[in-house]
Specification:
The complex is a heterodimer. By secondary structure, chain A is an alpha+beta fold. Chain A is built from two helices and three strands. A three-stranded antiparallel beta sheet of chain A has the order 2-1-3, covered by helices on one side. The chains are: A alpha+beta, B alpha/beta.
Chain lengths: 80, 222
């Protein structure tokens, strides 16, 4: 089983890296880009287990280490 | 009273020796260096989390160091009222352990900044800043990529109201909310600051704006 954690800067938190990415894309001619937010993805692998249990454990991992909830939001998806 | 200090060394710390040297010269001769894997702190009055790039800034600056084995003892030291200072990466570690509020994000201009920086002394009535009394400003170098202090408005108002903002940038170099360069916790025994006072104690290496910081500590520990 695999858990995929998406971490994004919270809305309202300045994201200068995302702004730089959007600026570069516009500069390259991709004018349709209105904005960019840059985050990260963390993949965690597990042996067999109950999906609900894994999800709860990963939720705790996010709160305690993987995300800084002062500035970041996270979401978890589980793959078999 | 035991007159002593400990400097914690994480893999990637690079200002620990400077901190030890500054403390030994100007604050106390009894300085321990403590490896992050240790679980016990020697009995000390002051703990410093030094600058550097602990764990290569992996995940987020200070995030992994904040969960190091020694940090349980460091948190107990702070909860007992012991003095605790985080400089630069140490400040990042303190926000990651939630001993200080807010977070330190990528500099607004995205560049690593390393330069002498004028600071306003906002609160000279702390154990860390007493020797700055009577001075409006000093100058201490910064050297960071992630020094952009962020906290929500309520938290910033609380910091402001409680006299917890100790240093502000005169010319905000990194986008920090309300020009914040250094704050204390509510109890006043934990300080985090991005500028490096240990790099400003000798005219031979530039400037001496950090001297009063270590003299303040000497006053506390004398």
């Amino acid at each position: 089983m695999k858990a995929i954690v998406h971490i994004q800067p919270r809305s309202g938190v300045l994201d200068p890296q995302g702004q730089a990415v959007a600026g570069a894309l516009k500069h390259m001619g991709f004018d349709e880009v209105l904005s960019a937010r840059q985050g990260k993805i963390i993949e965690l692998e597990f042996g067999d287990g109950d999906e609900q249990d894994v999800r709860q454990r990963v939720q705790k991992m996010c709160e305690q280490l993987l995300a800084n909830t002062v500035i970041e939001d996270f979401s978890i998806s589980i793959e078999a | 009273m035991i007159v002593s200090a400990a400097v914690i060394v994480f893999p990637g710390s690079n200002c620990d020796r400077d901190a030890v040297s500054a403390l030994s010269k100007h604050s106390t001769k009894r300085v321990h260096r403590v490896w992050h894997r240790d679980t016990d702190l020697p009995k000390v009055d002051l703990v410093i989390l030094p600058g550097g790039f602990s764990y290569g800034d992996y995940l987020r600056s200070g995030a992994i160091a904040a969960r190091s084995p020694i940090m349980t003892a460091v948190q107990s030291h702070a909860k007992r009222g012991g003095l605790l200072v985080g400089i630069c990466n140490g400040f990042q570690i303190l926000t990651e352990t939630h001993l200080l509020p807010g977070a330190l994000m990528r500099n607004a201009g995205l560049k690593f900044l390393c330069k002498s920086t004028p600071l306003r002394i906002e609160n000279a009535d702390t154990p860390f800043t007493r020797a700055y009394a009577g001075l409006d400003q000093t100058s201490i170098p910064i050297a960071h990529h992630d020094g952009n202090y962020f906290a929500d408005e309520d938290t910033l108002d609380r910091l402001e109201g409680g006299g917890q903002i100790v240093f502000r940038y005169v010319n905000n170099p990194n986008g920090s909310s309300r020009d914040i360069a250094g704050i204390t916790n509510k109890a006043g025994n934990v300080l985090g600051m991005m500028p490096h006072p240990e790099r400003a104690i000798d005219p031979l290496t530039g400037e001496t704006g950090g001297l009063a910081f270590f003299k303040s500590l000497a006053g506390v520990m004398a």
